[in-house]
Amino acid sequence: MARQGNASDRLLTEFTIPSQPGNERIAMRRVAEAVRPLAFESDRLARLATAVSEATMNAMEHGNHFEPERPVSVRVVASDTEVLITVSDWGGGSPIHTSAAPDLEAKLAGRQSPRGWGLFLMRQMVDDVTDESDDGGHRVHLRLRLPGQ
Question: What is the pTM of this model?
Answer without folding.
Answer: 0.84
